[in-house]
Amino acid sequence: VINSQDSTMNETLDKQDAPVFSYTLASADLRYIEIGEREIYLRREPGGSLVFRGELSGRGSETYINLSEILLEYAMSCEGCSRAELASEMLLHFGEHLGKIYADTAAQESRALSQAEMISEAMICILNSMEAKFTEELQANSINYSLDCCPLSECAQDTRLNRSVEMSYISLLALINTILERFAADWTLVSPSSVELNIPMHQILIMR
Question: N or C: which terminus of the chain has fewer CB atoms within 10 Å of its end residue's CB?
């Protein structure tokens, strides 16, 4: 059973320490026993870049997890849904909500950026939040990210959340596509896609 909650948008933007989303953690042994509440934050690092982080409610930074584990963990929590369709809807909503939170926060920037620059900043936020090692290649009509290794697959092995990998892509794709819709509607996420996930993920390609 999922117990998720979207925090008020104004509170999120006005107070950096307000969680942008929260969900109930379930045990990983197929019994789906509630073991705590995870709070998701979008924070600005000392260097100025935005990053998604997850923490257990009331327990602070010692329970920090990165975006890769957040996506895997939330996907595992959705396994407790009574219907597969409901799980997919929850995963889609989760990714869309994170994308909207990022877009609304980034829109506060006063400086004017091109569409390619806005996409680049968003993808760097996502990949840094996932703690992915990557190389960015900017072209006139394409932006390509080559990943040293798949952050979701690597995190799944470290956290034993292996069965959540494929489901976690639903939220990741929704996150990226929501940002593209807000900032660069004529750009498209080509790879990975819902048709061809390419697990493990070693490339993210966005084209105009």
Answer: N
The neighbour count for residue 44, using CB atoms within 10 Å, is 11
- Give, to the nearest 10 degrees, the angle between helix 84-106 and helix 67-78: 150
Residue carrying the six token digits 């004529």? 186
Structure-derived torsion over alpha carbons of residues 189, 200, 122, 37, reported in degrees to the nearest 10: 120
HSE-up of residue 34 (Cα within 13 Å, Cβ side): 9
Q: What are phi and psi of 146, to 5 degrees?
A: -95, 125
Give the span between the Cα atoms of 130 and 114, in whole angstroms. Answer: 24
CA dist., res. 125 & res. 16, Å (int): 16
Count Cβ neighbours within 10 Å for each residue of 171-183 and write b for 16 or more, e otherwise: bbbbbbbbbbebb
Question: pTM for this one?
Answer: 0.87
